[in-house]
Amino acid sequence: MERVISGVIAVPLVLGIILYGHPWLFFILITFIALAAAYEYFAMIANTGVNGFPIEGLALSFILLTGYFFEPRLLQFFVFLIPLTLFPVWFFREKNVRVAIDSIAYTLFGIFYTAGLGGYFLLIGNFEGGRQMIVFLLLVIWAGDIMAYYWGKKFGDQKLIEVVSPNKTIAGAVANVAGTLIAASLAGILFFNEIPLIHCLIVAFICGIIGQFGDLAESLIKRNCQVKDSGTLIPGHGGVLDRIDSLLFAGPAFYCYYLLFLAADFI
User: How many CB atoms lie within 10 A of CB 135?
Assistant: First the structure.
């Protein structure tokens, strides 16, 4: 019941802001989600005995997200700023050379994993019709996740990668892709007539597969950190990172597909 209530409240709120919210409100939403995921990431890796630099990591994540939203052409400078900040931070705060690379590397990875990948949704939102594209991507990924959960639970016997995620099955993975294609077909016919249906299906197929790697990537992190959920912010659903793990990989895939195959048709 907690899971249902959380979904009933959160989904319309998120979709409403994405579709109709002021650009600043859209930026605040994406930034909040990415920073919440970053916070959960740093909390998880603390269980490994490597603290990293969570305060600096969150600050740099915010700077990176502002770069995505306000001036994407300056992103290369933001990327350079991140290691340029973290190494001096270690020099002034730490003394144990044996864990220096661990702390810096874990922090770097956390920034790029959460804000670096999550920031692609800010880039997509800047496209003409980009907000609708984000909703399309959300519907596709959500449909795939739902299909994978129920089909895998009922028919899944053979595990996908048991050492990483014991509950994921090959049947569920196939059902996930099928769910994305069904959702893409319906969304493409009903809401995205300006985009050829074949592109809706291809990008859904790509994102459905790559999104599952995002799910497995977060499962790998949780297994390494020995935690079940990334957090408890969303009742019945775990943490924010648990809900966006697939999207963190699917968003950049969608962005790249758009630039390579669709952008010229909409310029």
Answer: 17
Q: Which of 220, 211, 236, 162 is nearest to 45 (CA)?
A: 220
Residues 180-237: tens digit of each pLDDT: 999 999 998 888 777 789 999 999 999 999 999 999 999 999 999 988 888 777 665 6
Domain ranges for the chain, please list them.
2-266
**Residues 34/40, Cβ–Cβ less than 8 Å:** no
In the DSSP assignment, the letter for residue 228 is S
Sort residue 238 into left (φ over 0), alpha (ψ -120 to 50) or beta.
Answer: left
Q: How confident is the model at residue 3 (pLDDT cuts 50, 70, 90)?
A: low
Each residue of 63-73: pLDDT tens digit? 999 999 998 88
> Per-residue DSSP letters for 109-170?
HHHIIIIIHHTHHHHHHTSTTHHHHHHHHHHHHHHHHHHHHHHHHHH--SBSSTTT-TT-BH
Kindly report the backbone phi and psi dihedral angles of residue 167, in degrees, each rounded to the nearest multiple of 5, phi listed first.
-90, -10
CB atoms within 10 A of CB 43: 16
Contact 176, 205 (CB under 8 A): no
Q: What angle do CA 221, 27, 70 make, to 5 degrees?
A: 105
The strand pairing partners of 106, in sequence order, are none
In terms of Cβ atoms closer than 10 Å to its own Cβ (0-12, 13-18, 19+), residue 1 is exposed
CA atoms within 13 A on the CB side of 149: 7
